[in-house]
Amino acid sequence: MKIKGLSILLSLVLSISFLITGCSSTDKTDKPNGSSTMHSGESSDAIPEYSGQDYITLSDNIPEFTENEPTTESFENYSELDELGRCGVAFACVGVDIMPTEDREGIGQIKPSGWVTAKYDIVDGKYLYNRCHLIGFQLTGENANEKNLITGTRYFNVEGMLPFENMVADYVRETKNHVLYRVTPVFVGEDLVAKGVQMEAYSVEDDGEGVCFNVFVYNIQPGITINYANGQSALNGEELPENPSSAASSDKADYILNTNSMKFHDPDCGSVKDMKDHNKQEYSGSRDALIADGYEPCGSCKP
Amino acid sequence: MNIIVCVDDKFGISFMGRRVSRDRSVTEDIIRTVRDKKIYIHPDSAVLFSDFSDKVIADDDFLDKAETGDYCCIENDGYEKHIKNIESVILYKWNRRYPADIFFDASIIGGKEPTKTYNFKGNSHEKITKEVYEL
Known about the structure:
The complex is a heterodimer of chains A (303) and B (135). Chain A has helices spanning 6-16, 137-140, 154-175, 244-247, 287-292; strands at 55-57, 75-78, 90-94, 129-133, 149-153, 179-186, 196-203, 212-218, 224-226, 233-235, 253-258, 263-265, 280-285, 296-297. Chain A is of the alpha+beta class. In chain A, the strands form 4 sheets. A 6-stranded antiparallel β-sheet of chain A has the order 1-8-7-6-3-2, with helices on one face. In chain A, strands 13-11-12-14 form a 4-stranded mixed β-sheet. A two-stranded antiparallel sheet of chain A has the order 4-5. Chain B is globular. The model of chain B has no long low-confidence stretch (mean pLDDT 95).
């Protein structure tokens, strides 16, 4: 457990957090075990190690927005990638005017930091990693924005982040109110894969009565061990690859083939879902070998 | 009593003291369902029925006040001691996942098939399923 200085940090956070009268938890609810606190972008030392819970609440579930941040004007901001190509804080005021009105487009051309293609039978959909939106597509309609996509497990994406995104999206659609929303990926040292994300939300017009949370969601996949430094992974109890660079190289990768058009696609390419089953093949192997066989890379996902 | 509960895919009702979701089409359907009866609610639920305030009885002890045949809208725990008095359960399913720390005790309807099932499009939800269980 890395909770050095946690009590001091808690005091600091509570002192700078603006007073959200309708936002604290009630005594009717059970607080998840291991609740703790941290600052946005603060040292990951403040985050307890994963102990079996998909998420923990931070600062008694009170988000850390400052007094001047609540607004009824929609916006979205994304941080520049750092020198390691990693995403930073994504911040938005979500309103119906910036929610998507069209279907999601392909995002397979983005390779977030730590991206490695890995497949396991125990993972829903087989692929361990998803390109996880910091601010979900259903909230701001961002497609292939490299500043908004991190390497995250399937479990983290669907079981961890999605329920919170759903809560915000459905509230905004129902009330036409705004929700201040911030997602902060937390990387340990020079790790390329985030340990998880801090998610904060606060409904503006009703002072947090509708939506209010401050949680840390762990980027984990049950049954799989992840090396957060480079994205390498292995089944629990098995050895992680010794040489990450070779294992993660482009020598061998997974693609989806269209045997009719003779194009190959990234598995996450948006056009894969439109492909007829009898034209579709899953392929695992060298990219060069595919091209030698007459296949061409998809112009959209550029695998 | 007949209890009305809105749940997510894992029977989640609320998270840190807040309902996991809401939809005005559900409120309107509840009003149609109870017909000329009043709905017993906790005062915290009054915001859902702000357009129908003459149709609700809001009281901290609403479950103690409700009698046979009455309808109670439940958005939190505390109903456990009244289980023996429940005549029917009306579930509104959001067909979505939300974070939750209070869950409806699905064993109350365990093993039973709903006597009536309805699906409808909500104001902000693609598909809401209403299931009625007679106990």
